[in-house]
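This part of the workshop introduces the protein records we will be handling. The structure tokens are whole numbers drawn from a learned vocabulary of backbone shapes. The record below serves as our worked example for the rest of this section.

===
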Amino acid sequence: MEVIPAIDLLKGQCVRLYQGDYDQSEVFNSDPVAVARQWVEEGATRLHLVDLDGAKAGHSVNLAAIAAIVQAVAVPIEVGGGLRDRQSVANLLSTGVRWAILGTVAVEQPELVAQLCGEFPGQIIVGIDARNGKVATKGWLETSEVLATELAERMAQLGAAAIIYTDIHRDGTLQGPNLEALRELAAVVAVPVIASGGVSSVTDLLSLLALEPQGVTGAIVGKAIYTGDVSLKEAIRAVGQGRWQDIPPDFGSSAFA
């Protein structure tokens, strides 16, 4: 399983939110490029970036910081936040970002997801963020009536390369991942599922590793590596390197058909 460090960008700084609440943000570092280099030096084979300003505004805001990180490290990068039209996705991928993560549009404009999956094969990931099993949108500020499992199944059918699942109630809380929800979601899709939210220890990562045969291939780790509750090096040693680092950009859902 691949351990993927998260870098959440707010006003150009590396922060963490508590349960997605913008009013409960904690700045960990004012230099996200330095943070990215640190995680790669400690063994990260992939980075997860979130443009929090973009998610709230509905368009990319921290593109300059993202481009600087891409130039600074040699590992593939996935980015989400504010990607709600074709041009935003194209602009992001033109910086050298490997994967664009779509969230809100998966609920509101599934036809756009299908179009982008066709235009950028293997480079579109769908991020599903859920409260009590229902999908949240617009930077977690709104909650829809769409079930996470139903959305995941549809997005996989449209050609998404992977699904990132975040349990909002666990995010930034260090309370452990929602294993039951991950198991249910992985059961309905034939593409990789990446877990996000709540990882507080290597034990949590080992629990997720038990779901790898069911399709949970990675775990995004945020707050725990910033607070020191989890050592990235130890986590990677515990669960092993992922299989994504050697997969070309055109890898898509067809590989799991």
